[in-house]
Amino acid sequence: MMLLTENRTRFRKAPHQEKRAEVLKTVGMIGIGAIARHVVEHWQTIGQEYELRSLLARRALSDRPAGCGPATRIFSKPEDFLAMPTDIVVEAAGHAAVASLGPDLLEQGRSLYLLSVGALADDALSDRLCRAALQGGGRILLPCGALAGFDGLLALTRHQNAQVTYTSRKPVHAWAGTVAATRHDLSTVTEPLTIFEGSAREAARQFPQNANLAAAVAFAGVGLDATRIILIADPHITENIGTIDASGPLGTLNVTVQGRAAQDNPKTSAIVGASVLSALANQTAEIRFI
């Protein structure tokens, strides 16, 4: 294990520059919020295997994001973004962006790295996306985001009778602007408060900005309706904490990830952008995790 860790960079980077030049992949990104900015600012960490060709922002930007090279085109009109060919598109803009752009991108044969996984809880939209992927040859790919253990969860739930619970514990202010704020006076919360308990499908519907991981756990495990979700507002913590508890005939899985909240968006974790970069790097590595 130590040898593999020490040589990971060697396997991913320099020795085969001529081969890499032949398989250069182009990338577009939807959104320029906290996640997208992290990806752009750290783009150089994935070497020369990828070119960041385009960004789609909701409105024209007054300045170029840090780390954004001169060759990257920045668009504010979706039709212009769609007209710019890329192999991969990273979505970091929310459910509405998935619905409006996802089908067209997949019909064009692109790989769509989907971060707003909760959008797939809408059966009609999920069907549209899957049909578009089948027709155009595109793929829907789900980065691990702010959680871990999806590989074990996929294996554990291959057999029937598995049970899965996902608990998301965030600081109280991370739930501001959500339906929780209409049900509770969040300013008076002094002890951990369970603001939701139910299915992953309902969690994704009620908390579209906070429960994307709940949907991801459901897709890797026992499905949107069978996965139990618990969402907690906790005044005693400053980080986002996600826990998977799963059990079945093959064993049990207990995974907890405690990550810093993104500086510009407390509803998401800072590590999400790094998970996108890691997924891209893994796709071109000589030794890959699957």
TrEMBL record:
<feature type="domain" description="Aspartate dehydrogenase">
    <location>
        <begin position="190"/>
        <end position="276"/>
    </location>
</feature>
<comment type="pathway">
    <text>Cofactor biosynthesis; NAD(+) biosynthesis; iminoaspartate from L-aspartate (dehydrogenase route): step 1/1.</text>
</comment>
<dbReference type="GO" id="GO:0033735">
    <property type="term" value="F:aspartate dehydrogenase [NAD(P)+] activity"/>
</dbReference>
<dbReference type="InterPro" id="IPR011182">
    <property type="entry name" value="L-Asp_DH"/>
</dbReference>
<dbReference type="GO" id="GO:0009435">
    <property type="term" value="P:NAD+ biosynthetic process"/>
</dbReference>
<comment type="similarity">
    <text>Belongs to the L-aspartate dehydrogenase family.</text>
</comment>
<feature type="binding site">
    <location>
        <position position="146"/>
    </location>
    <ligand>
        <name>NAD(+)</name>
    </ligand>
</feature>
<dbReference type="GO" id="GO:0051287">
    <property type="term" value="F:NAD binding"/>
</dbReference>
<dbReference type="GO" id="GO:0050661">
    <property type="term" value="F:NADP binding"/>
</dbReference>
<dbReference type="InterPro" id="IPR005106">
    <property type="entry name" value="Asp/hSer_DH_NAD-bd"/>
</dbReference>
<dbReference type="InterPro" id="IPR036291">
    <property type="entry name" value="NAD(P)-bd_dom_sf"/>
</dbReference>
<dbReference type="Pfam" id="PF03447">
    <property type="entry name" value="NAD_binding_3"/>
</dbReference>
<keyword id="KW-0662">Pyridine nucleotide biosynthesis</keyword>
<keyword id="KW-0560">Oxidoreductase</keyword>
<dbReference type="InterPro" id="IPR020626">
    <property type="entry name" value="Asp_DH_prok"/>
</dbReference>
<keyword id="KW-0520">NAD</keyword>
<dbReference type="GO" id="GO:0016639">
    <property type="term" value="F:oxidoreductase activity, acting on the CH-NH2 group of donors, NAD or NADP as acceptor"/>
</dbReference>
<feature type="binding site">
    <location>
        <position position="212"/>
    </location>
    <ligand>
        <name>NAD(+)</name>
    </ligand>
</feature>
<feature type="domain" description="Aspartate/homoserine dehydrogenase NAD-binding">
    <location>
        <begin position="31"/>
        <end position="143"/>
    </location>
</feature>
<comment type="function">
    <text>Specifically catalyzes the NAD or NADP-dependent dehydrogenation of L-aspartate to iminoaspartate.</text>
</comment>
<protein>
    <recommendedName>
        <fullName>L-aspartate dehydrogenase</fullName>
        <ecNumber>1.4.1.21</ecNumber>
    </recommendedName>
</protein>
<dbReference type="Pfam" id="PF01958">
    <property type="entry name" value="Asp_DH_C"/>
</dbReference>
<dbReference type="InterPro" id="IPR002811">
    <property type="entry name" value="Asp_DH"/>
</dbReference>
<keyword id="KW-0521">NADP</keyword>
